[in-house]
Specification:
Layout lengths: L1 E4 L14 E4 L2 E4 L17 H18 L7 E8 L5 H9 L9 E6 L9 E8 L1
Parallel strand pairs: 4-5
Antiparallel strand pairs: 1-2, 2-3, 3-6, 4-6
Helix pairs in contact: 1-2
InterPro entries: RidA (IPR006056), RutC-like_sf (IPR035959), YjgF/YER057c/UK114 (IPR006175)
Family: Belongs to the RutC family.
Protein name: RidA family protein
Length: 126
Amino acid sequence: MKKIITTSKAPAPIGPYNQAVLAGNTLYTSGQIALDPNTMELVLDDIKTETKQVMENMKAVLEAANMSLENVVKTSIFLSDMNNFSQVNEVYGTYFNNNTAPARETVEVANLPKFVNVEISMIAVK
């Protein structure tokens, strides 16, 4: 049985999907981009600020499912330009303890929704 997870503290979906789905003890999040949930405006000042907004959105979705970043077992990072990897990684790394950080892949893609620079999705387990 699946449970749909939603929160007003993260951007509302801009298509036919939900912020996250809880299946048993496993949470599957949709990808988050740097939309400010209060204004639904993109936060694209620079790649670090953009990444921070994405991670804050992810935290809000996890919290709506009564989870935290400590529950995350896998992340997927999509970049429009791999030259941004080190800056994204720097911000991303502030959200996790190196000893318990989740598995991850980071890939460069041709384009992302709304032509943003970074999108991140997560899988978490209670």
